[in-house]
Amino acid sequence: MSVSRAAPVYWARHLNKLRWASLSLVFAMLVLLPFLHVYQSYVAAHAYDLLQPGEKWLYDSMETLTSPFVSDPARQLDSVKGTTWSGTLFGLKLSDPLAVLGQVAAGLRIHWPFVVTALIPILVTAALGRVFCGWICPASFIYELNETLSGWLRKSGLTLGERQFDRRGKYLVLAAGFVLSVFSGSILYAAIYPPALVGRELYYVVAQAGFGSGAVFFLGTLLFDILVARRGFCRYLCAGGALYSLLGRYRAVRIQRDVATCNDCQKCDVVCEFGLTPMADGFGQECNNCTACIAVCPEDALRLRIAVHDIPFQGPGHQGHTWRHQQQAGQQEPPV
Amino acid sequence: MDRRSFIQMLVAVAAAPAVADATAPPSGLRYLRPPGALAENDFLARCIRCGQCGEACPNRCISYFGLENGSASLDTPYIIPREQACILCMKCGVACPTGALERITREAEPILARVKMGMARVDTSLCLSFQGKTCGVCYRACPLPDVAIRVGRLEQPHVLEGCVGCGLCERSCIQIPQAIRIFPNRDGVA
Lengths: 336, 190
Description:
The complex is a heterodimer.
Chain A: H1 2-5, H2 15-45, H3 53-66, H4 73-76, E1 80-82, E2 86-89, E3 92-95, H5 97-107, H6 112-117, H7 119-128, H8 131-136, H9 138-155, H10 169-184, H11 189-192, H12 194-207, H13 213-227, H14 232-237, H15 239-247, E4 253-257, H16 267-271, H17 292-296, E5 302-306, H18 321-332
Antiparallel strand pairs in A: 1-2, 2-3, 4-5
Helix pairs in contact in A: 2-3, 2-12, 5-10, 10-15, 12-13
Chain B: H1 3-23, H2 40-46, H3 52-56, E1 63-64, E2 77-78, H4 91-95, H5 108-114, E3 118-122, H6 137-141, E4 149-151, E5 157-159, H7 168-172, E6 180-184
Antiparallel strand pairs in B: 1-2, 3-6, 4-5
């Protein structure tokens, strides 16, 4: 046993760090892009001398930041724009599949040029599962920090929300949003989908008049997560999460438990933000391959594998007490 | 909370905007949609509220509605020309991923043929030129002079059929309140 411990660390254990780097990068870009837009508008106006001191500071700092890469900011900085809801990445237009679904519902017709922009996200989700939720979503970034905060509050002695609801609630939100979009002729998901809200509100607060109504809604979801249910909005109410779950149901890459090395320590069950049970092989379409469970597993018993289905429950881990007692009990049983 | 009441709560929360729409009075706001916008109902069904038109606008004339114009236009783009008018750069139509704003080439013919944000109208009781004080600022501000607006005696402005409703005249009018205003067109691109 001790020999296997000396083996090199399983590479997938590092993915959780990479995931945090990705979440932080996306969020930092969402903060930066509105500043770049304001900077572009100053450049286009050719009026540096007329700017206020604060505006000059913004101009100078953005110029310092971008001048190594960009010679014509008014035009070249257009290559990265928008949010995760819909954006342009080096000339490539990408959109959230939920935006496409919402548009189909509101207009009851398919506008193909827009559908095409969601093609890459749909294919990635079909292959890798709902990685958007764990790796990209700017709201997840805040929700996970929020969960850490409520962890500290719990440690300081406060009793916070621990309610559990039916996970299928979010499919209801997805369906209700579709039906109401059909009737109202307006894309309602845009008002209740946290990543869209976060991107938009960051833009509003930097480049427009300030936070809009979406910020209030988002604050409500943060309170919901703290006071009612842990990670409650993502687990039970997020329409986009529901859509990504459905798209990623038959994902090709999934986390599986190696029962021979699992020692039933339950760290994976505790760390899972979505309240799943990796120790009981409980992943399903809810798992967003965030790999947090892989990172905490002391035995490297959780593995990333190419598979289209989960393994059904394999029983207790072979390095744990339960399995050992079962084995001993089985040996002591008198032969019939 | 049991599952049934939880689900009822969900439906109630989700239905609230639609109910609010049915009961909300039409707002009297005089706003323009960005150039290339579809007719109002099609626009609301197409626009995904991504904010990219505003992020593309070098003149920062595009703002976004809160709830002041009813919940159906929440987070949709608008232009109040007196605050900041459209310079017809047509970058918003390129940025729009959804087709809610159509792509229009930045040349005189396509703009004249398809952009119809509204139509300027002169209030002769306010206009300085009509009061005998020669002004002509609106004519000088117009990106389509003699096509959208012409001036007569004492620089008195007369709006022509070619007006696309960009609002630069209204923005530049030196009279307070402004003597020339854009009256929005909600029927979308031509």
